[in-house]
Amino acid sequence: MATEKTTSDQLRSLFKSLVCIIALIYIIRTFIFGPYIVQGASMNPTLENGERLFVNKLSYAIHDLQRGDIIIVDGNGEAKHYVKRVVGLPGEEIEMKDDELYINDKKVKEPYLERNLQAARYLQMQLTGDFGPIKVPSDSIFVMGDNRLYSKDSRNGLGNVNINDVVGKAEFVFYPIQNVRNVY
């Protein structure tokens, strides 16, 4: 014989469901995917100020960091995070000469910089000042923003980024709606 649930049983069931939903959201945001807001111009035009990203926090538990990945870096005790592009991997030697990237003395193409390079050439200036060679420690990576003239990165303030300070890989822009896209 079926009995009707009392109001208190229904409330208890609803409360348990809400607790499970909140716990699930917390686990997903903390360990799997998290939203981040792009602040500043350091990644223009790839990412614009105010865009919101979803970051895959499990990505590097599955595979290694790759040159060209756009990542979120923990601000080393600061209450901020940085969005940057991986340029140099552990143990590599990085050098910039005349807006050309060299890794271990071999020229590396950076197709994501083409618009910024064209603008710099038009203005008759360098996009990335010459530096290096710099040896990346075995536990670190070298990062730069795509808008190199306006980027705090491994060259000028962040230094080499410890691999443990990488929060995750930027996967896609979800806001504003008209800009929804995968991030490369």
TrEMBL record:
Enzyme Commission designation? 3.4.21.89
Q: What gene is behind this protein?
A: lepB
User: Molecular function terms in GO for this entry?
Assistant: signal peptidase activity
User: Source species, please?
Assistant: Priestia flexa
What family is it from? Belongs to the peptidase S26 family.
Q: Could you identify this protein by its name?
A: Signal peptidase I
The record ties this protein, via PROSITE patterns, to: SPASE_I_1 (PS00501), SPASE_I_2 (PS00760), SPASE_I_3 (PS00761)
Which top EC class is named for this enzyme in its record?
hydrolase
Where's it found, cell-wise? Cell membrane; Membrane
SUPFAM superfamilies, A to Z:
LexA/Signal peptidase
